[in-house]
Amino acid sequence: MLRGLRREKMMKLFTMVRTLALMGVPMLAVSAGSVILGSGAAYAQTTGTIKGEVIDDSGLEVPGVLITVDGPNLIGGAQQEYTDDAGRFLFTNLPPGIYTVTAEKAGFGKKRYTNQQVLIGKNTALTIEMSVQEAGAEMVIIADRPAIDTESASRTTVLTKEFLERVPNSRSYQDAVGATAGVLAGGNPNMGGASSNENTYMMDGVNVTDPVTGTFSLNFNYDAMEQIEVATGAFDAEDATNLGGVIRLVTKTGSNQLEFDTSIYYETAAWAPKMDARFGADGADLAPTDFDSQFSSMSFNGLISGPVVRDKAFLVVSYTMERSLIARVGIDLPRDYEGHYVYAKLTMQPTASNRFTVLSQIQPTTIDNTTQDNRFVKPEAQSRQAQGGIVASAQWDWFPGTDVTVESKLTLQQNYIETGGVPCTHNKRLGYNPCEPEELENTYDFKTPGRLGINNAYDSGNYYYYQFDDRTRWSAVSKVSALDQQIPFLTGDHDFKAGFEVDVLRWDRSVGYTNNIYYADWNQQTYDPSTFQNYYWVEASGESDIVAGGEHYGAFLQDVYQPIDNLTFRYGLRWDRSIMRNNFNEAVVDFGVFGPRFYVIWDPFGDGKTKVAGGYGRFNGIGNLGIAADLNQSNGLGTKLFLGEPWNNYTNSTSFNYSLNPPDNTNTVHDALTAPHSDEFSFVGERQVIQDLVFGVSFTSKFTRNVYVFDETNIIWDEKGYGFIGTGDGQVESRNRLRTPSLSRRDYYQTDTYIRRNFADRWLASATYTYAVSRGTVLEGNSTALAVAPQAEYAYGNLGTDVRHQVKAQLAWDLPNDPWTTRLGASLEYYSGAPLTRYYFSAGYGGSALLREPVGTYARVEPIYYANLAISQAIKVPKGQFRVEAALLNAINARQAATVNGTYLYAQNRWSILYRQNLMTGRIGVSYDF
Amino acid sequence: MSPRGVLFDMTSATRAALLLAVVAQACTYDEHLPQVDIKGTVIVPRAAATRVILDDRTGVEAEVVDARFIGPVYLGAYSDIRFDLENYPHPATGPIIGGELGNTYPYGGGTVGVFDFACYTSTLCKVVTGRYADFSSMLDFFSNTLDQPIVDEQGAEVQSPDYFRTSCYDLFEYTEDAELLFLAGEDGLDFKENADGDFEAEFTMWRVNYHPGMKVWGWMDAPDGNFDFTTCDPSNGQQFNQYSASFTTGSSHIDLLNFPSNYIDIGDFVVSEPFELTYEDADAFRAAAPTFTLVYDFPVEK
Question: Span A48-142: which CATH code?
């Protein structure tokens, strides 16, 4: 029984830790819309290019035309070059933003093209027509922005500054990326059918993905972002060392103008109508509650940017203070989040051929009352968490020749999480004092009737838990790009790229308990509150330490070959070697893998308005330290069982038992691991039907195999996997083993149909419909989904990402109201319900039972609707302008259950959602900028 | 052979087949697990499915042969089977310390049939999967053959298959009969009568830790006169707390293979000739993919 208790206790601990991790975002997932489909960006890409040609009025190429590119974000001053013999020009390494392109040549007129937008990793194509008949004249042309990139096959959405400012969301990048087709919004979204911990997060070219969990690790000033690129598939060889998507944040760079932007926002759900917070999986209300979760937040933002040395050095400094209060149903003390995000970036270009960028972000954050999933937790048992970290990066871009770039970068990413009970926590950094057992016992009122836990049993669940967690990634990246190159005797142009990267990872964690953490009824059976017999409590103490480390080496070769103007081949090969070591310095993950990519893009009419593209890519999951460290969770934690008084049903004459967890490691790794990988086949067709308006369809099939999974080697199961009939070593305890079996797989199909209109003429619009099918055996890596051998073959079924119908739409409109402007923004999202797991829980020994197939209609959560509305009014003042915004988020007050946090109700055998993740809230804000 | 090499001597079809084979090989992944799935056939003697039933109305005893009498069949893989430990073949055990039984430390095991809850507490630990085709079959067997009618929670005899189904759907919130394990459904009944009049069934022992020389052995738990099984633990299994009612659904004891002698009793049938696996290692076993027959021919007597 003691082992059983420990297992239950550890499950609760795991749930709590997971909850803490999930609560790293102030508020999850109301999403917004997409704007521009771009191209496959470099893994560390933060810039774009302008590429084009000059022709005369007879259509012939014009060489020797002086092309000048200039824009407010362009450091180093305007760039110039002459068109080559074929009349072509190319400008690389341009920070995202708006540019003007000027063409001039003696004997021709001078043409100035304004409003050219450069996107992250995108090539902005421009054809300039010049005429001798216009000689001496200067024409300013407000050019159309190209809506289709006819050289890229990737599925990429770039959310521009115009979009981020206008389309309402919860003002976080995590929320904004939900605009992309096929992205299931959330703090850590599911992208392309992958699990939520298989994405890569980049900030200004720096990998800021959590090296342990594979999730996001950074919060950020929303107003400091220039663009966000969301890439969900068809990556080039230089991209993607994981199975999910890539989110790239590119911040503002500054300019020669001094700019200042400050804002304050307040958001609350206090006024919103309350809804029943609980509902069953089928959407039916379980019981009226008349209460709801609570939410309010306030944020202050400041940003200043400008020149340190005109044309030579730009500086951006931003700061955000964010505080939010979130209380789940029945929780007295709200989770109190207070974060401070400070970011600074200095970009210097002292000479034309050298650019240096140094940046740093720190984000000290505290979260009080983190335990929001158990309403029986006493206030004194609530935990406090401190978290934060630093990102520091230094990058040197060397431009040794025309269209040749050598990029070198060193980065440090370090995150920390410190969690402790209040007030009883070992004091390492938080400054609390450890509790004494007697002190705790006198604190608890564990005899109060009516405090029911699992199975209606008394279960205080009061954890006195602490955690000190440091995660570090050192990275060195170097890449050489030689664009627009020709090979003798071979027609066409090549964009060659090659690079390598080295990552050194480390995870230091200490986890432990102070005393007396767990009270429950014997066997968690229903008890009689009036007598309160047969209870026990468990005292646990001790500490578990993890020191995991690893290295990753990556290299790639890539070519973009254009044999003719309207046909592009993108192909390359990526190699990754990954080594992840556990506490004992054993290489749990140790492999080298190749990822070939090949795509063809065709512009059938050669007018830049149509694209037909398709191809294949293999993406490998290089793993993270969480995989290695899962093998050394076994530790020296001790548990002591106390029996309550009076103790009627227990024959043991001793008053308590004491045992230590086995010092040996109960987790092992199978010798033969292979890298999880996805084989993706993609197709996209797009057509610009009218100016700025694109219609497109895309289809993706993605087959992921060998996902990390734990199986079980000790328990001997019966024929159905319903219960077990023996154990190999005589211990009633699971022996988990890490594997990458072929059975551990998922198949994903996604079809998108979309229209989008880029922001132009004061408005933008976008709408996507996604049909997705996701089936397989394992969605989340590192799970025990296939542990019960007889049921493994039944495990294949609909996965959590099987959200069949997804509709996303965004609209923004700037109303001219001279001298001011009124902005209207709206977004709508619809997700059909996700399938629920088919497991039900079994009490006592015997594990959980899996229903055999066919199991009838999958239970699904009810569909999810979001609607956000915003209106803002600019008020110009002599210096700059104020803007007042009012927004209504989740305007239809729909309940959200995309990320199911359900609890199985034994009383009614139904799932329920015990809290709402998104409430209807109102937000007001005032900003000032000049 | 052509000077150009073997590959160029092949026909196009052969080259294509070879290429496909290479691609297929690249797409599969052999883990070389030290565990194997062991498949085969169990045979229980006709006597295990035979009962002498007294007809209360006529007072005449009659011998009834019915596969529904066959209890759960257990299989285990052990280092050795000895004949000197009990009065029936029994796996070798570890040392007996302080009077406590020695553990057999099985390498793996499996069953043919498991205990499943048939929606009413009156069936607790009496229903084995793979033995009943449908609700009617079960009602008929318990009412007419065993003379132990299934009763609902109010004590009323369950006579209607539809009522039976409704009770199950309400209890488990199921939507199809296929979700009820105790009904064989499309899978069919486990045991079929063979030409010798005995009963055969297929089995799989999942992920058995392979050791050369290990022996597969097992026993069948025969029900007692009240149709109870010694290997079922009524306090185990899924727990239901429905308002004021609380019950567990029953499941096998969790140490059946570790301490078989605790559960083997009179009337059970034991394998007297265990099957020895002599393949060098797990990979060799998988390459051979053997199947074999295990006969439960040894009746346990006092």
Answer: 2.60.40.1120
